[in-house]
Amino acid sequence: RSLKWLQTALERKIRADPSDFVYIAGLHCSFGNIYFEKKDYKEAMKCYDKSMNCYKLGNLTDHLNMASLYHGVARIYCAQKKYADAFNNFQRSMTIQERYLPANHSDMALNHSGIGDVYRGDGQCQRAMECYVKAFEIRKKSLPPQHQDIASSHRDIGLLFEDMTMWNKALEEYREAYNIYRQSSLKHQNLAEIENDIQRVSSKLK
């Protein structure tokens, strides 16, 4: 979804049904996600704040979709290396998910992976590995074997092994991720990134 499409959808919804707080909050959250991908964290946070206000106006702060909002906020803090704030928001997201979703639901893996990113950024490799493995196990049970989220888990684990200078294990994980991305019909930046990862680690093994 483009920013232009979202803006049009938002304006139409506000005119037609301004009390549909969940839908409007979701649009603001989608705005935030796009700005996050553009690395415009300030604008992304503004959008997430607007989303939060919608949930508050509707007295819906325990709604399942709030989990996505907290997750988005956590990703911003993680990118800014504000790990304590990131951890708190990932935990808030997970707490809401636990009220609505089974433990092995694929969405649960997102927060385990996010908390793993926090620990990895903070240099706590063992805790990061526990979170990444948990996310991977959930995805293996709940998703098709060639799903890109499984490839993402392999890459997360590979990056952590690389941080630990365990080059062979890192390369093994990167190759697993590559095999999944290569077979995907969605040819995007993930394939280029994993190719760079493989080349980088391979050069260290020469």
UniProtKB/TrEMBL annotation:
Gene3D superfamilies: Tetratricopeptide repeat domain
Keyword field contains Repeat: yes
InterPro entries: TPR-like_helical_dom_sf, TPR_rpt
Keywords recorded for this protein, A-Z: Repeat, TPR repeat
Signal peptide from the UniProt entry: none
Domain of life from the UniProt record: Eukaryota
Coiled-coil positions: none
TM annotation in the entry: none
Pfam families the UniProt entry points to: TPR_12
TPR repeat start and end residues: 67-100
PANTHER family: AAA+ ATPASE DOMAIN-CONTAINING PROTEIN, TETRATRICOPEPTIDE REPEAT PROTEIN (AFU_ORTHOLOGUE AFUA_6G03870)
Protein known as: Uncharacterized protein
